């Protein structure tokens, strides 16, 4: 998939544009994107980074990093994506200015978005306005019950199966593997220590099963209460994996929440529970 940062980087062509932030690329987003891809023109996505609400000073816990969002878009068959830097200047564009400076230069003929989509200064623009400006604007009916905000609530509660139903795929946690306490290795279960971006949503504390790099994963998210920790750690153990992960980007699919984190009466009891968690991770089934 070709990714550009300005309309001028694209060649001249008639395009069908899926317009939106698409955080998480959930089932509702997929419906919008597929409508653009199948519109009969060159289908593409126009999206924003950072998240518009974040750029305007609001805290937003993202469901996916930009890098992961682009990978998911490519997996849907999107051939071109324009990532617009959401700057204070762009936020001040009227809907008419946005159409003139972004949509017209990329050859947008069809514009597809969710039927509640708003854009431009003060969120004054909608698909009806684009139609008045001469675009073939096509609203896509929202998927009932599916929204990024609802997925966030489910993940904050640790309901990864509920989140997977709305995403159409397992939820994920992503980050860079950094040095940790190396305590897992002394217990016989060497874990990676994952440093996630500060604006990425991480599910509720607990023990999870999933997959990364083609290996089953048993993962702890929390503060290691057995050792009196107070700093959140994300520690995936990749079953049957041999190799050095330090410095690598790692995306972990989360398939199942196994249990709460807790302290144990002894280290032997802790090791026994970790062994049971690992076996549960071997037996876990990928949602959907």
Question: What is the number of strand segments?
Answer: 12
User: Spans of 5+ residues with little confidence (pLDDT < 50)?
Assistant: none
Q: What order do the SSEs take from the amino end to the carboxyl end, as H and E?
A: EEHEHHEHHEHEHHEHEEEEEH
Radius of gyration: 22 Å
Strand content range:
25-35%
Largest sheet, in brief, is:
6 strands, parallel
The number of helical elements comes to: 10
Architecture of the largest domain in CATH? 3-Layer(aba) Sandwich
Judging from the principal axes of the Cα atoms, what is the shape?
A: elongated
Under CATH, the topology of the largest domain can be stated as: Rossmann fold
**Highest CATH level, the class of the largest domain:** Alpha Beta
Full CATH superfamily name of the largest domain: HUPs
- The order of strands across the largest sheet is 1-4-3-2-5-6
Q: Which structural class do the helices and strands define?
A: alpha/beta
Mean pLDDT: 94
